């Protein structure tokens, strides 16, 4: 590990694909050498998901399978189905399932959420995880790399449509876990209002004294329990190194217990 506490190791496989290792080497991840890249967001999302034992989990916009594979590294009892509209990323997700010996527990469908594959429309899930696109279609906030722009900027589905698909695929009482930009939290909560309960929000603080730029949000479909705001997780010390709590999640696969309220304090 580098002096800055870097939690992701990369090995170049070709000009187009590199291999990244997550969770201290527990997860091997092949991904594009440019453009779309898995980040700590996927690891944090997986850490915050709390599906029941033996659950079927839907990962919408799964990319190369980073969040799904991190969740499976922690929970060998789960079964995941991902949806990814970029064929190259979906193909890498399938390769990564084989690479991590979980192809019997994780598969990726290629398709657009605005017109979901027929197989997906026949499935229902106990839990869902997702990192919805951060930027509105008209925002101009996307990357110059096409694959990254497609992953980060709304296109055929806006945030409301994204949440609609997630909730339609969930069984009554099923749960979802999301990671999203803190400044778009009002829109996210509006999309969940009246359709979910037990909404729990965990801020992710970049450094002490800085505003959160990401939030983790969990909710249960059809419930009426009140919302809760947890203390949150401090990610970095002032010198940029990861805190001990962040290291436990990013390298040691520690869970972030959203529903039990045991969030780690900054």
Q: What report would you give on this structure?
A:
- With 266 residues, the chain is of the alpha/beta class.
- It has a single domain, classed as 3-Layer(aba) Sandwich (Rossmann fold).
- It has helices at 40-48, 66-74, 87-99, 118-121, 146-152, 159-169, 185-192, 244-250; strands at 9-12, 17-22, 27-32, 56-60, 79-84, 106-110, 125-130, 170-181, 196-207, 214-221, 228-229, 233-236.
- Strands 4, 5, 6, 7, 8, 9, 10, 11 and 12 form a nine-stranded mixed sheet that branches.
- A hairpin with a 6-residue loop joins strand 9 (196-207) and strand 10.
- The protein starts with 8 loop residues before the first strand and ends in a 16-residue tail after the last helix.
- The relative contact order is 0.14.
- Mean pLDDT is 87; it is low at 1-10 and 262-266.
Write out key terms for the chains shown:
alpha/beta, Rossmann fold, globular, disordered N terminus
Low-confidence stretches: 1-10, 262-266
What percentage of residues falls in helices of 4 or more residues? 25-40%
**How far do the termini sit from each other?**
23 Å
By CATH, the architecture is named: 3-Layer(aba) Sandwich
Number of DSSP strands? 12
Helical segment tally? 8
What is the residue-averaged pLDDT?
87
Work out the count of structural domains.
1
Q: What is the class in the CATH system? A: Alpha Beta
Strand fraction: 25-35%
The helix/strand series, from N terminus to C terminus, equals: EEEHEHEHEHEHHEHEEEEH
Computed over alpha carbons, the radius of gyration is 17 Å
Enter the CATH topology name. Rossmann fold
Structural class: alpha/beta
CATH superfamily: Vaccinia Virus protein VP39
Q: Any idea what the shape is?
A: globular
Q: How would you sum up the major sheet? A: 9 strands, mixed
């Amino acid at each position: 590990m580098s002096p800055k506490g870097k939690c992701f190791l990369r090995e170049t496989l070709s000009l187009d694909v590199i291999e990244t290792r997550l969770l201290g080497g527990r997860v091997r991840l092949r991904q594009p050498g440019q453009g779309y890249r898995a980040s700590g967001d996927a690891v944090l999302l997986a850490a915050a998901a709390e599906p029941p034992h033996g659950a079927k989990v839907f990962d919408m916009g799964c990319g190369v399978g980073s969040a799904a594979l991190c969740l499976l590294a922690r929970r060998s009892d789960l079964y995941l189905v991902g949806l990814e509209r970029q064929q190259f990323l979906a193909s890498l997700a399938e390769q990564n399932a084989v690479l991590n010996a979980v192809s019997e527990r994780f598969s990726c469908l290629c398709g657009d959420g605005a017109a979901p594959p027929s197989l997906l429309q026949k499935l229902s899930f106990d839990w869902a995880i997702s990192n919805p696109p951060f930027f509105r279609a008209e925002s101009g906030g996307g990357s110059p790399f096409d694959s990254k722009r497609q992953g980060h900027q709304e296109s055929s589905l806006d945030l409301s449509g994204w949440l609609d698909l997630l909730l339609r695929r969930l069984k009554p009482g099923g749960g979802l876990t999301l990671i999203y930009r803190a400044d778009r939290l009002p829109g996210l909560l509006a999309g969940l209002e009246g359709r979910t309960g037990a909404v729990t929000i965990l801020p992710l603080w970049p450094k002490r004294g800085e505003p959160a730029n990401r939030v983790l949000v969990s909710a249960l479909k059809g419930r009426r329990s009140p919302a809760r705001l947890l203390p949150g997780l401090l990610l970095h010390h002032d010198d940029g190194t990861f805190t001990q709590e962040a290291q436990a999640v990013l390298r040691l696969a520690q869970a972030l217990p959203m529903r039990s309220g045991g969030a780690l304090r900054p």
